[in-house]
From TrEMBL:
InterPro entries: NAD(P)-bd_dom_sf (IPR036291), NpdG (IPR010185), P5C_Rdtase_cat_N (IPR028939), STEAP_metalloreductase (IPR051267). One of its GO terms (biological process) is copper ion import. Residues 30-121 form the Pyrroline-5-carboxylate reductase catalytic N-terminal domain. This is NADPH-dependent F420 reductase. One of its GO terms (molecular function) is cupric reductase (NADH) activity. The lineage of its organism: Bacteria, Bacillati, Actinomycetota, Actinomycetes, Kitasatosporales. Transmembrane segments: none annotated. Keywords: Oxidoreductase. The gene is npdG.
Length: 238
């Protein structure tokens, strides 16, 4: 057999997947645990405004329903467990102090779900914000340890709650660092980020790299205080 024959009979190579080819996520129900807080409320507003079905979760169902009514846009409010059960994708936006206990209590309801952890373990003193390092390495890795039957990712750490909640702002000009173990899951998170005008999701590694992404929020807080801004991030040349 000639080299030409070998080339003709060789199996065709599968084209490399376009890194920016993302799935359609418009039909997914997005739940936001901690949706009555500033960050969770802001994310709920932006996704609802983009056309997603959104459910706000809280420890108290009445607080969740009040927050949902204030947001409008078809947002619903429910107790955390119900929010987790009814949602396809669940964003964890609870305070760091309650992160572990909240997820541990919802292990069954979050089984099989795509979970997006956006919690930043931070401490504050007279010198400002500083990063904390959980025993597991990061908030996202703690979530993965507590939710072995869930598909845990990390994203939406560096967003200004002030900008997210401002109805006069049409676009959120920022990139979102997305971390996770499976491309199918991070692709969904990137696609959700892309639903918000001005926002782009960028794959940033596996969950073992989540600590430095979470920690960078302390630096952004310092930037914002010095320059009286609401700084975000942009990744260049991609």
């Amino acid at each position: 057999m000639t080299s030409t024959d070998s080339a003709q009979n060789a199996p065709a190579k599968t084209p490399a997947k376009d890194p920016w080819e993302l799935p359609d996520v418009s039909g997914l129900i997005v739940g936001v645990l901690g949706g009555t807080g500033d960050q969770g409320r802001g994310l709920a507003y932006r996704f609802a405004r983009a056309g997603q079905k959104v459910i706000i979760g809280s420890r108290a169902a009445d607080r969740a329903r009040t927050a949902a009514d204030e947001l409008g846009l078809g947002v619903e409010g429910a107790e955390n467990a119900e929010c987790a059960r009814r949602s396809d994708v669940v964003i964890v936006a609870v305070p760091w102090e309650g992160h572990g206990k909240t997820l541990e209590a919802l292990r069954e309801e979050l089984s099989g779900k795509l979970v997006i952890d956006c919690v930043n373990p931070l401490g504050f003193d007279k010198q400002g914000a500083y990063a904390l390092k959980p025993e597991e390495g990061s908030a996202a890795e703690q979530a993965a340890a507590l939710l072995p039957d869930s598909r845990v990712t990390a994203a939406f750490h560096h967003l200004s709650a002030v900008l997210l909640q401002n109805p006069d702002i049409e676009e959120i000009d920022t990139d979102v660092m997305v971390l996770g173990e499976k491309r199918a899951d991070t692709d969904v998170v990137q696609a959700l980020a892309a639903r918000v005008p001005g926002m782009r999701g960028v794959f940033a590694g596996r969950l073992r790299n989540a600590h430095q992404v979470e920690s960078l929020v302390a630096n952004l807080i310092s930037v914002n205080r010095r320059y009286k801004a609401h700084a975000g991030l942009r990744v260049t040349d991609v």
